[in-house]
Amino acid sequence: MRGVFAVVLIGLLFFSGCAPKGYTTAEINSVMRIYKGEVVSARAMVLEDSGEGTILGAILGAIIGHQFGGGSGKDVATAAGAILGGVVGSNLNKANAQELIIRLDSGEEISTLVRVDREQGFWFRPGDRVRIFVRDGRIVKVEPSFK
User: Fold this and answer.
1) Cα–Cα dist 79/71, whole Å
2) Are strands 33-47 and 129-135 parallel, antiparallel or unpaired?
3) Which of 18, 44, 54, 63 could staple 90 via S-S, CB 3.0–4.6 A?
4) 105 and 40, same structural domain?
């Protein structure tokens, strides 16, 4: 029973990192500057796993692998589960992104890397009008501007 609980707990921790990122309570009443511009260049990228997916996948795989075999077979199953879990976790934690060069309406050009939402599947193209949200000198998000 404890093994099942551990697997479920680690699974929840692992997949909570896949949830869409929204705002936090720390952002209430914060001020963002909004710039408008046009996409000049858009290049597809892949964001590699930062290590979190690999580590959590390996732990989860080791726990599952440890449920099989006996004696030295149990050790082999645990190691194999850790390796397989690490590979799967790393692949699940990769994300699609785009490197954008945007010409602001002021004439200035900026470059940024934006994560592509898997469900939305929206990709920016050269010529797209965008709004860029900036807080404390950091781009918070880039979204299509339909006006």
Assistant:
1) 13
2) antiparallel
3) 54
4) yes
42-61 pLDDT, tens digit each: 887 776 666 766 777 778 77
CA angle 106/107/112 to nearest 5° reads: 95
Average pLDDT over residues 129-143: 89
Q: Which domain holds residue 87?
A: 1-23+49-93
- Asked whether residue 39 falls in the same domain as residue 8, the answer is no
Q: What angle do CA 147, 140, 126 make, to 5 degrees?
A: 50
**Whole-number Å distance between alpha carbons of 67 and 74:** 8
Return phi, psi of residue 28, to 5°: -65, 135
3-state SS, residue 119: coil
Neighbours of 76 (CB within 10 A): 13
pLDDT band, very low/low/confident/very high, at 38 (cuts 50, 70, 90): very high
**Do 56 and 120 sit in the same domain of this protein?**
no
